[in-house]
């Protein structure tokens, strides 16, 4: 198994170079993103939390008319500029305008191209850092909830991150939307045969299947850490008071995540959770439906 950070970085680069037509929407030219963001009127910057860099972009709104705050997390190789620049999110904003809906304040957060909200030995307690410091700080920074709702949106890697917060701190959120969440059904420390079987069963490319298994090994040092963050186990806890959950799943996801997304949906339903599942027919990784996402995030129920 790959151990060094440099080898993991090389593996991520290899994945980006071999993605072809199924490239993740976050796998874009970051220089172009930065150039586009420089013309935006939104507030973007960076801050330190316990010596860890957190990048942010804030899309402000008329908070007197809508005090809701939407925290947004990007996918692998993405950045905090994705809310402004991704075409699907532009369509969400356009839909809101056509609905006459005043959008929430959107706070897009990032710790770089790769970051996972976990509390583990190798990378530290990032989940606790976000829950206890980062999110409360930015909520206060934009003026607090003031009677509004706290919403959460994540895609791919960011979808996994959003699910960690949804599963560990359900009382904190009113609605949570995860788009193409990274939910592989590969077991902990899989054999080569198990990885190849996953690739064949789900339609994931072999490189992506091995990449997914390797990144899990890179994140979790022990089975105990893996189990403590395993969404398929955490969702088994019955919780009829959990926030409403929206799952967008493309059925031709080149990483094989559709299988895990479908499994998670069934487990969530069985545990009494309110969950909406949107299947994107013939959709590649992170293809989404802006119409249903707009409606879900705009709902006051």
Helical percentage: 40-55%
CATH hierarchy class name:
Alpha Beta
Considering the protein shown, what is the CATH homologous superfamily? Alpha/Beta hydrolase fold, catalytic domain
Overall SS class? alpha/beta
What string gives the helices and strands in order?
HHEEEHHEEEHEHEHHHHEHEH
Notes on the protein architecture:
- The structure is a single chain.
- The chain is α/β, with parallel strands linked by helices.
- The protein has one domain: Rossmann fold (3-Layer(aba) Sandwich), CATH 3.40.50.
- It is 41% helix and 18% strand.
- The protein is built from twelve helices and ten strands.
- An eight-stranded mixed sheet has the order 1-2-4-3-7-8-9-10, sandwiched between helices.
- β7, α6 (157-168) and β8 form a beta-alpha-beta unit.
- It is globular and about 55 Å long.
- The N and C termini lie far apart (47 Å).
List the helices and strands and how they pair.
Elements: H1 5-17, H2 30-37, E1 43-49, E2 52-59, E3 69-73, H3 82-85, H4 87-99, E4 105-110, E5 119-120, E6 124-125, H5 126-141, E7 150-155, H6 157-168, E8 175-179, H7 192-202, H8 206-219, H9 223-228, H10 231-234, E9 244-250, H11 257-270, E10 275-280, H12 290-298
Parallel strand pairs: 3-4, 3-7, 7-8, 8-9, 9-10
Antiparallel strand pairs: 1-2, 2-4, 5-6
Helix pairs in contact: 1-8, 4-12, 7-8
């Amino acid at each position: 198994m790959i151990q060094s950070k440099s080898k993991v970085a090389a593996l991520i680069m290899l994945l980006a170079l071999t993605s072809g037509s199924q490239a993740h929407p976050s796998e874009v030219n970051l220089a172009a993103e930065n150039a586009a963001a420089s013309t935006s009127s939104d507030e973007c910057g960076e801050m330190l939390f316990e010596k860890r860099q957190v990048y942010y972009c804030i899309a402000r709104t008329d908070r007197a008319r809508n005090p809701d705050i939407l925290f947004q997390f990007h996918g692998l190789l993405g950045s905090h500029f994705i809310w402004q620049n991704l075409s699907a999110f532009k369509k969400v904003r356009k839909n809101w305008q056509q609905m006459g809906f005043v959008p929430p304040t959107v706070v897009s957060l990032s710790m770089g191209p790769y970051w996972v909200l976990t509390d583990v030995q190798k990378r530290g307690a990032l989940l606790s850092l976000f829950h206890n410091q980062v999110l409360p700080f930015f909520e206060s920074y934009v003026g607090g909830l003031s009677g509004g709702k706290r919403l959460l949106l994540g895609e791919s890697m960011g979808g996994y991150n959003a699910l960690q917060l949804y599963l560990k701190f359900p009382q904190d959120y009113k609605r949570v939307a995860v788009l193409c969440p990274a939910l592989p059904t590969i077991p902990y420390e899989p054999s080569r045969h198990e990885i190849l079987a996953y690739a064949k069963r789900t339609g994931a490319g072999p490189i992506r299947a091995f990449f997914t298994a390797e990144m899990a090994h890179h994140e979790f040092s022990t089975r105990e850490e893996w189990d403590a963050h395993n969404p398929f186990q955490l969702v088994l806890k019955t919780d009829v008071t959990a926030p409403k959950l929206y799952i967008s799943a493309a059925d031709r996801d080149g990483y094989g995540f559709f299988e895990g997304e479908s499994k998670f949906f069934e487990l969530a339903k069985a545990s009494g959770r309110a969950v909406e599942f949107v299947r994107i027919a013939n959709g590649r990784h992170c293809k989404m439906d802006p119409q249903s996402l707009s409606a879900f995030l705009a709902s006051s129920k």
